[in-house]
Amino acid sequence: MNKHLMQLFTDQQAIGLIQRKLPISFQYAEVDCSRAGRVGMEVGSERETILVSLFIHYFGKENVETEIPITDSEVDVRIFDIPLSIKTKTGNSFGGIKAVWTVDPVSAKQFKTSFTPKIDILLAQIIWNQFGSLYYIPVEVQKDIFSKIGIQKFLNLPKEGTNPRGVEFSSFAIQSAVNDKRTHSIKINWQKKQNDYNKYDRWVDFWNEP
């Protein structure tokens, strides 16, 4: 269990900051990644950037490693040299959360065959106009669930003939993890605010600079 993340999830000042700023920052991310009213898949990367920026703010840049080798497919960031996987999901369901991204069916099968939980997960569940949560799921919790339900119930392979781009955690596995008493969470009221934010404005301002 990462004691530093535990600190973030128990620091009342940090919790208040997250509850205030995460909804609006994720709302901006959706605007940045939208076209013709549809939010693109790249919004996941934008949300990840926002969360990593939170870690840099809270823990200091020197303690947050963002340059992760591409070979570490499950790792998104290291905090005090401890790896962390960042997941975000919109909606009430926990289905569809990727364990790893791949378009190769052979690689997907190999991943499932060799998989065991190895790193902590930070999961943001976004439910607009309702309450959701930011969860810290320690690897110990994942390992215990994995040992109880087995690989077939823990991961879902992509269906043959489709292109879902990855191996997914089962909704049962994630639901079990977030309900575990060792998992920490911050409740967030995901209210969208009325604003005139425009994704082009900052770049127009940039080009207008001397």
SSE arrangement:
Elements: H1 3-10, H2 12-32, E1 34-35, E2 38-39, H3 43-59, E3 64-65, E4 77-79, E5 82-90, E6 98-100, H4 105-114, E7 120-126, E8 131-137, H5 139-149, H6 151-154, E9 155-156, E10 167-169, H7 171-179, E11 184-189, H8 201-208
Parallel strand pairs: 5-7
Antiparallel strand pairs: 1-2, 3-4, 4-5, 6-10, 7-8, 8-11, 9-10
Helix pairs in contact: 2-3
Describe the structure.
The chain has 210 residues and is an alpha+beta fold. It has helices at residues 3-10, 12-32, 43-59, 105-114, 139-149, 151-154, 171-179, 201-208; strands at 34-35, 38-39, 64-65, 77-79, 82-90, 98-100, 120-126, 131-137, 155-156, 167-169, 184-189. It has a 6-stranded mixed sheet with strand order 3-4-5-7-8-11. Helix 2 (12-32) runs antiparallel to helix 3 (43-59). The longest helix is centred in the first third of the chain and has 21 residues, at 12-32. The radius of gyration is 18 Å and the shape is globular. It starts with a helix and ends with a helix. The mean pLDDT is 91.
